[in-house]
Design a protein that fits this description.
Length: 160
Amino acid sequence: MQIADSTVVTIDYTIMHAEDGEELDTSRGGEPLSYLHGAGNIIRGLERALAGRSAGEDVTVTIPPEDGYGLRDEDLVQALPRRNFPAGDIEVGSMFRAEGPDGSQIVTVVALDADSVTIDANHPLAGFTLNVRVSIRDVRAATDEECRHGHPHGSGGAHD
Ligand code: ZN
């Protein structure tokens, strides 16, 4: 079966910075990723590269930021009062989840002094061109319920 809208695809993936090959994330050694094709579950550039492929194929694709995690928006870098943060344990490079207007997002601490904490709410991979290596393990038709929900369900049909 070929990958198309309304198929559930299971992949192993490795994401690297295109510039220096640094490995950023991989499913190898852990659980493969299943997603519903055509539902925006994964970045656009990867979804596009996988369309029409089949189980058993290996795909390597270079994805510019516009088709990946987006361009950086410097307006998302903000200094906030230190008192808004819990005492201790904050350092440059710390990441945590914050509730924003678009739901929960990951923010990174980029600067710090006694009075303020500067956070960057851009996705950590925004602005980067990525190389993604994928091995397609399985392709199957999505169920009606999965299509309605916009995501795949596990083998028992249940939600996580
Ligand atoms: Zn569901």
